[in-house]
Specification:
This protein is mainly beta. The chain has one helix at about 50-55, and strands at about 1-10, 15-20, 25-35, 40-45, 60-75, 75-90.
């Protein structure tokens, strides 16, 4: 099963590495916090080159992670693993835009977009365009 999660990267756990029958391996576990009404903290593991990518992302950055979910049994206990197969930093589309100071006119890049706002009309309602 594959799922997409979006959240803030809040912690990188210790990098684990070793050598197995297939050669060298590395695993990086990390914690993201969702931005739901009730935020959840989720531990996800990244293997191989995905673990190296995490060190290029700043803490508290928002990321999108696609994970495979798998459970396995060991000694009559079940363990669930969320393994990242794609990690993408999210870009804040407003990060480069200047914010106007209180009491000043907005710069020309902040145009009046009321012409782009569509009106919603339900059957039987006489709603007009919203007054902006």
């Amino acid at each position: 099963m594959s799922v997409e999660l979006t959240g803030k990267l809040i912690k990188l756990l210790s990098l684990q590495s070793g050598t197995g029958r297939n050669g060298a391996w590395s695993r990086q576990e990390f914690i993201i916090e969702t931005s739901d009404q009730y935020p959840k903290k989720i531990c996800i593991s990244a293997w191989g080159d995905k673990s190296n990518m995490l060190h290029q992302i700043d803490l508290n950055s928002t990321i999108k992670v696609r994970v495979n979910i798998e459970s396995r049994e060991f000694n009559e206990k079940w363990y669930t693993d969320l393994r990242a197969w794609k990690i993408e930093p999210m870009q804040n589309e407003y990060a480069d835009m200047p914010s106007p100071e209180y009491g000043q006119d907005a710069p020309s890049s902040y145009s009046d977009n009321t012409s782009e706002i569509s009106t919603f009309q339900d059957e039987g309602d006489d709603l007009e365009a919203l007054p902006f």
